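Lab notebook, page 48
Experiment: co-folding of the full assembly
Goal: obtain a model of how the components sit together before planning crosslinking
Operator: M.T.
Materials (sequences as entered):
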Amino acid sequence: MKEFKVKVEVKLKPVVLDPQGKTVLTALHNLGYEKVEDARIGKLIELKITDEDAGKVKERVNDMCMKLLSNPVIEDFVVNVEE
Amino acid sequence: MSKSNIYKFGIVVFPGSNCDHDCYHAIKHVLRQECEFLWHHETDVGQFDCIVLPGGFSYGDYLRTGSIASLSPIMKSVEKFAQSGRPVIGICNGFQVLVESGLLPGALITNSSLKFVCKWVNIRVESTKNLFTENMKVGDTLEIPIAHGEGNYFCSPDELKALNENSQIVFKYCADNGDVTPESNPNGSIENIAGITNKEGNVLGMMPHPERCAEEILNGTQGRLIFESIISWLNLNNKQKDRA
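Observation: model returned without errors.
Model output:
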């Protein structure tokens, strides 16, 4: 058994409006960062998992994302597994 | 004269529900029905005639609104209850729980204004092919309060097409005169959607609060129509059962 550090990035799908990102974009413009064209805000979830191998961990975390960590209707996710 | 029986309503209580007592009051004291609170650890709701998922902030809205509550032990039995064709109504946070649980399609995301919106709105009845608008007509409008930060209904174009084709869109936000306009949309919902049902028409999710406008002292009584429709349907259903 090994210990894995897993990072899950959850982002709103490109077609879903992100009002929080829009507001942050406006604030960045107000600060003078006019070159910023877009801002989208997501979530970073860090998990510590003990399991046999990275493949199994990835499979399980994908499952967790479909069931709980993300809402597939509005969000995409990326799973990154590190030993 | 048709006689109305007394029906048994179950109100699911999650940690963080806060409209449970309002629903209880409206159902028990205004509509004179039997009513019980159901803690989310319950696993059998089979003895009830209608299940209510009330508003609030279940689990502090952690992760996504309604997401943790949708995995509560009670939700499996609510799903079974819904499959049996009996009425399930999710109000506000209850609607969010229903979409997260997959009992209703789509998702509810942050209001386009980013603000928590708490005010009276008008909604237009769009469909009566469900058991919650039994006592209404298409085109009727109800004045009803909303109070939410994540009521912006979203779904894919395919899902939206299916919702329209199956007459699952029950309520849309509208102007005083009943026109569905962009200005009357308080949260950015697709097509001004305020409430939808499942395909079978026995599971309703809506952001507005009918329990908050069920008696004169609250300055509005039109919310009663929804609860009365459920009771009318239960009466009808009972009669059919008696005949069978």
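Interpretation: The two ends of chain A are 11 Å apart (CA to CA).
Next step: discuss with group before ordering constructs.
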